[in-house]
Amino acid sequence: MNSRLWDILISSIPRILLPGVVYTIPLTLISFFIGIVIAILVAVTRVMKIKVLSQIFQFYVWVFRGTPMLVQLFIIFYGLPNVGINIDRFPAAVIAFSLNVGAYASETIRGSILSIPKSQTEGAVACGLTLWQTMVHIVLPQAIKNCIPALFNSVISLVKDTSLASNITITEMFMETQRIVAVTYEPLALYIEVAAVYLLFSTGLSFLQKYTEKKLSKDRNVVTPAYSGD
Prior knowledge:
This protein is mainly alpha-helical. It has one domain (3-218): MetI-like fold (Orthogonal Bundle). It contains 9 helices and no strands. The longest helix has 45 residues, at 3-47. The radius of gyration is 22 Å and the shape is flat. The protein starts with a helix and ends in a 9-residue tail after the last helix. Mean pLDDT is 90; it is low at 222-230.
């Protein structure tokens, strides 16, 4: 590796990491949080088979799971202004990513809810809880806990998908790399470098995922002593 290329790679690291801190990480966290809220709402509504809303949410999941995220991003940012709806680039990206995460995560959460034994629901109802109270206080907490590993996969995928935001002029890590490439004419080395940065972020989340899975596994194995009544 010649000294010029080495100097380019060293000097480009802070330029790539800064958009990661300013855009990639916030975009990932905000979109994922909103997406999970959407996913829980959609999953609970569909499991409880609430009329009209259940059908609307089923259509929403079908559309967002069946179309590319890039197309969804373009429709929200470039398409909606044609009908008088103008959304700034960062909120547009948050909306697109959140709705996409919500659609996929809702199926994960819905499957987890359905895996909870029906005897728990029947027992809670027999004790005087309503179906809604049973869902919120008994079923949903267990379901969320069971699908945390799968939701971590969604976060990792979202970190990588934020590179699509460069298509609506958000200066995240990939777009900044493109700008550096346009000046230095070193595409191979710089694209490998930004790939390594994404890999670093994803690896950190993977370690956090493994730690969380081990923690949850230990919690499941803890035997709670029976109450003696003394």
